[in-house]
From TrEMBL:
<feature type="domain" description="Cytoskeleton protein RodZ-like C-terminal">
    <location>
        <begin position="196"/>
        <end position="266"/>
    </location>
</feature>
<feature type="transmembrane region" description="Helical">
    <location>
        <begin position="127"/>
        <end position="146"/>
    </location>
</feature>
<dbReference type="GO" id="GO:0003677">
    <property type="term" value="F:DNA binding"/>
</dbReference>
<feature type="region of interest" description="Disordered">
    <location>
        <begin position="1"/>
        <end position="25"/>
    </location>
</feature>
<protein>
    <submittedName>
        <fullName>DUF4115 domain-containing protein</fullName>
    </submittedName>
</protein>
<keyword id="KW-1133">Transmembrane helix</keyword>
<keyword id="KW-0812">Transmembrane</keyword>
<dbReference type="InterPro" id="IPR025194">
    <property type="entry name" value="RodZ-like_C"/>
</dbReference>
<dbReference type="Pfam" id="PF13413">
    <property type="entry name" value="HTH_25"/>
</dbReference>
<dbReference type="InterPro" id="IPR050400">
    <property type="entry name" value="Bact_Cytoskel_RodZ"/>
</dbReference>
<dbReference type="Pfam" id="PF13464">
    <property type="entry name" value="RodZ_C"/>
</dbReference>
<keyword id="KW-0472">Membrane</keyword>
<dbReference type="InterPro" id="IPR010982">
    <property type="entry name" value="Lambda_DNA-bd_dom_sf"/>
</dbReference>
<dbReference type="InterPro" id="IPR001387">
    <property type="entry name" value="Cro/C1-type_HTH"/>
</dbReference>
Length: 296
């Protein structure tokens, strides 16, 4: 849109009408344009003062108010423009209402939250970067928790078989060798203290009783210990890292619940159930002996 106002003859007055009203503005848009030029202002000046996008200012000066986002916006923009060029706001607003009165108004587009033609409303680069970093941190934290205990529980069947074997071993007395005595089986104190010690940092684990009541749930730190309450009825465990915990029953190390990063759930952790699991490998047992002798 040119900055030259419509003026086919006569000098312009400050409100945009020509002297003597020989050739008055054809529409309210030309009146706004004439007032702007009379004050030596450009469209950029008006855009800076009113924060109205340039394309809307051009449409207003061309009298195309029906192309603006809506009737309310058209009237509001017109009043802001009138205020910038010192024209009577309500008079301009009324002329815009009359211009829109018989028009079938169809907005050309919806107004979005951020208009790219208005740099002041576009988020800054720092804000966008901060949002991206925050999102990445949340994703990483979520992945860590998911990896810890939402891993597919592939060895549940094996754990069930081990529990069945433990029950069977409790019910069946050990066989005697021909001409010998029965192998010695360490007596299990049903109230022996069961302690879990984290061998890695930030490992999630949950303990609960046979009715599902939670005993403890947290991400244990390296070296942190948890003692299963002696009064808990049929305590069980759920974790995504069974290989990351050392278990002792009455001070004696027993086999871990697993040797890989595969989740286990509903595994009994009573003293009897843990002692019935396969023995600790010889290397581990010898290491315990060396540790005991060193402490002595």
């Amino acid at each position: 849109m040119s900055d030259t106002p419509y003026n086919a003859g006569g000098a312009s007055s400050e409100d945009g009408a020509t002297t003597g009203d020989l050739f008055p503005p054809a529409h309210v848009g030309e009146r706004l344009a004439s007032a702007r030029v009379a004050r030596s202002l450009t469209l950029n000046d008006i855009a800076s003062r009113t924060r109205i996008p340039m394309r809307h200012l051009e449409a207003m000066e061309a009298g195309k108010f029906e192309t603006l986002p809506g009737r309310t916006y058209a009237i509001g923009f017109g009043k802001a423009y009138a205020r910038a060029v010192e024209l009577p706001e309500e008079e301009i607003a009324q002329q815009i209402r009359e211009a829109l009165g018989g028009a079938s108004h169809v907005p050309t587009r919806e107004v979005t939250q951020f208009d790219l033609d208005e740099p002041s409303k576009v988020p800054s680069a720092k804000l966008a970067l901060l949002a991206a970093v925050t999102g990445a941190v949340i994703l990483l934290a979520g992945f860590g928790i998911w990896r810890s205990y939402l891993f597919p529980a592939a060895n549940v069947e094996e754990l069930a078989q081990a529990a069945d074997a433990a029950s069977a071993s409790d019910a069946t007395p050990p066989k005697r060798k021909a001409g010998g005595t029965a192998p010695s089986v360490p007596a299990v104190d049903p109230k022996a203290e069961v302690v879990f010690t984290a061998t890695e940092d930030n490992i999630w684990i949950k303990f609960y009783d046979g009715e599902g009541k939670q005993l403890m749930q947290k991400q244990m730190a390296l070296g942190e210990q948890y003692t299963v309450p002696a009064e808990a009825v049929n305590p069980q465990v759920w974790t995504g890292r069974p290989d990351a915990f050392e278990i002792t029953v009455g001070g004696r190390t027993v086999a871990p619940l697993g040797t890989s990063e595969v989740a286990v759930k509903d595994v009994p952790v009573t003293a009897a159930a843990l002692m019935a699991r396969p023995a600790v490998p010889a290397a581990t047992a010898s290491q315990e002996s060396r540790s005991a002798s060193t402490e002595g």
